[in-house]
């Protein structure tokens, strides 16, 4: 009996170490399957345009990214980050981050299972037209690192929308919401900023 208890105790110890090494929460994520978010219509809304970027808030970012890769997504090699595991799938960039990441880097408390869709507009007028056409209700001004602020809209329960407008300057190829007047590094993934079509 005593030997059996020792064996059980050792097995539990090994499992605990493996879970800690994996670096993810043991809770099952409430995030929707990323591959199921891909459609012309944004889930739960009347929006019929495909977004450019999709941020999935999940307690298990690496596991969710692996699921999308298994469904045919491609990892953006060289851009992987400890809290940011981007996958390119059907014309969109999917990012998987924890609620804690968003809590630390923004002024809004997103929850496990929330999704943010980012659209790119060529002008303020186009942005306003998009908001009016799809009857998007503003939730807050989402403030990110470097004090950049964007209107955050609620498209439906747990589904949010950011609409970024084209400006000139330096941006991150993975995070178009990062705006800098000069070259430097992205405050989110630390990649070098590039001169490109920027949005705010």
Strand content: 25-35%
CATH fold descriptor of the domain at 28-166: 2,3-Dihydroxybiphenyl 1,2-Dioxygenase, domain 1
What is the CATH architecture assignment of the domain at 28-166? Roll
Q: Which CATH class of the domain at 28-166?
A: Alpha Beta
Compute the separation of the termini in Å.
66 Å
Give an overview in words:
The protein has a domain at 28-166: Roll (2,3-Dihydroxybiphenyl 1,2-Dioxygenase, domain 1), CATH 3.10.180. Strands 1, 2, 3, 4, 5, 6, 7, 8 and 11 form a 9-stranded mixed sheet that branches. The protein has a two-stranded antiparallel ribbon with strand order 9-10. The longest helix is centred in the N-terminal third of the chain and has 21 residues, at 2-22. With 200 residues, it is an alpha+beta fold. The chain has helices spanning 2-22, 61-70, 99-105, 124-133; strands at 53-57, 74-75, 87-89, 92-97, 115-121, 137-143, 149-156, 159-167, 170-171, 194-195, 198-199. A hairpin with a 2-residue loop joins strand 3 (87-89) and strand 4.
What's the helix and strand layout?
Layout: H1 2-22, E1 53-57, H2 61-70, E2 74-75, E3 87-89, E4 92-97, H3 99-105, E5 115-121, H4 124-133, E6 137-143, E7 149-156, E8 159-167, E9 170-171, E10 194-195, E11 198-199
Parallel strand pairs: 1-4, 5-8
Antiparallel strand pairs: 1-5, 2-3, 3-4, 6-7, 7-8, 8-11, 9-10
